[in-house]
Amino acid sequence: MTTYSKMTLETILSENADYSNPYFKTKSAAYELTPDEAIIKRIELPSTTDGVNPLIGTIVHHAAQNDATDEGIQTEQVLAVRNTDTTNSVTLVGYTRMGAKVSTGSVVTVANTTLGSTNMVTLTAGSGTPWTDTAGFASNQYVFVVDAGAANTAKSGARYGLVARDSTAVIHINSSTAWTGGSSQSLEVQVLRQWVHDIPAGGFFVLADALPRAASSNVDDSGVVYGYSNAGSGSSVVEVIQLGT
């Protein structure tokens, strides 16, 4: 059975508290969809001062993650979030997939360098030039490692900061722990761009074509949006609407 959805936006500017005699008013514009899946929920987002990771408040998952919490949406059409807090803003953090997933197809040399308190891992392709602009390596912030190879299996399925690209054959990433150095099997990686958006008290956030399909059947952070409250303590409640197929 087909389901129909319509979101409308209207803006009124008036010098009166009851919005009478507006000096500016937009005609209501509709964004119409035909989703067959809808998820509506209210979520408490913790504040950062409560000693929790700001990314702990997961708002949406993606079905291609094979995660039981995704509730079946394979292709997101729209994500809408309303901050119900009357005092505090909330912050959303999400990741957009850049380019296609890269499989190096050759042995990669892994080397570790201490960068302050962080391990910087250098990945050098044995042949070919996998770290190209078209794959998103030019100016993006994170690398999701789908498969880190046999020597570093435990590093698979995680997101790492992209420090720099020396060339299309050499990149540097941050890791909380060192990798096993030397030669590794071919790697599968996905470049992600992080986006951050603040929603003021009582405000809305709407993102069309919200979450791209995951790069593979492996768990993939390109289909996740997190959030946290900017309250001094406690939490803020948001209402989330997901529409898709």
What labels describe this entry?
single chain, 245 residues, mainly beta, Jelly Rolls, Elongation Factor Tu (Ef-tu), domain 3, 3 domains, ten-stranded antiparallel sheet, four-stranded antiparallel sheet, 50% strand
Question: What does this protein structure show overall?
Answer:
It is a single chain. With 245 residues, the chain is mainly β. The chain folds into three domains: 1-33, no CATH class; 34-95 and 195-244, Jelly Rolls (Sandwich); 98-193, Elongation Factor Tu (Ef-tu), domain 3, CATH 2.40.30. Helix content is 0%, strand content 50%. It starts with a strand and ends with a strand.
What is the CATH C level class of the largest domain, in words?
A: Mainly Beta
The N- to C-terminal Cα distance equals 12 Å
**DSSP strand tally:** 18
Overall 3D form: elongated
Overall tally of structural domains: 3
What fraction strand?
Answer: over 45%
- Order of strands in the sheet with most strands: 6-17-8-15-11-12-13-10-9-14
CATH architecture of the largest domain: Sandwich
The ordered string of helix (H) and strand (E) elements is EEEEEEEEEEEEEEEEEE
C-alpha Rg (nearest Å)? 21 Å
Biggest sheet descriptor = 10 strands, antiparallel
CATH T-level topology of the largest domain = Jelly Rolls
Helical residue percent band: under 10%
